[in-house]
Each structure stands twice: as structure tokens, then as C-alpha cells.
């Protein structure tokens, strides 16, 4: 039988999510490379960025749609090499 595990998340402090330094340079319309998971990398265009640069909307290439990426998601967003 599996052990019961109770996490008291309401007692744990929230951590401030800090985006990588280059996230602060991203602007609407920038071409970027997005690495969502090991082995899955694609390009896209930045559609929107929040004022604190912790959230970025990217229109992915190849008809993969628009996706919201948060700095705590563990994804890499890099400016596309020109």
C-alpha cells in the first residue's frame, strides 16, 4: 500500500520567480528559439511580454499555436541567431 503524503503548501512561503537575464531583452515581434523539453526545440515569434518579463506569449512556428511561457516553467527562450 502506498504511503499517504500530506503537503501543507499553505504553510510554505512562495518563491519569487526570476526570469533569465535575456528574458528582459525580449520584445514583441522578436524571433526566438524555444526549448520546451529536452529534444523538443522550435522557433517562434514573441507575441507579448509582461511588464516584469516573467511571462512571454510566443507564436510557435509550424502551426503549433500560441503558448504562454512562465519563467518558472523550466523552458529556455533564446533570441534566434540571425
Estimate the helix proportion, in percent.
under 10%
Identify the strand order in the major beta sheet: 4-3-2-1-5
Quickly give the structural class: mainly beta
Order of helices and strands: EEEEE
Provide mean pLDDT, rounded.
83
Query: What is the radius of gyration computed over CA atoms, rounded to a whole number of angstroms?
Result: 16 Å
Strand count, sense and closure of the main sheet? 5 strands, antiparallel
Please give the structural blueprint.
Layout: E1 31-37, E2 40-49, E3 55-60, E4 65-70, E5 76-79
Antiparallel strand pairs: 1-2, 1-5, 2-3, 3-4
Describe the structure.
- Helices cover 0% and strands 40% of the residues.
- It is built from no helices and five strands.
- A five-stranded antiparallel beta sheet has the order 4-3-2-1-5, with no helix packed on it.
- The mean pLDDT is 83.
Amino acid at each position: 500500500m502506498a504511503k499517504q503524503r500530506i503537503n501543507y503548501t499553505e504553510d510554505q512561503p512562495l518563491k519569487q520567480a526570476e526570469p533569465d537575464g535575456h528574458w528582459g531583452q525580449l520584445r514583441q515581434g522578436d524571433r526566438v528559439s524555444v526549448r520546451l523539453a529536452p529534444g523538443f526545440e522550435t522557433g517562434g515569434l514573441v507575441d507579448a511580454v509582461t511588464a516584469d518579463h516573467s511571462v512571454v506569449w510566443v507564436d510557435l512556428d509550424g502551426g503549433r499555436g500560441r503558448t504562454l511561457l512562465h519563467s518558472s516553467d523550466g523552458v529556455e527562450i533564446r533570441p534566434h541567431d540571425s
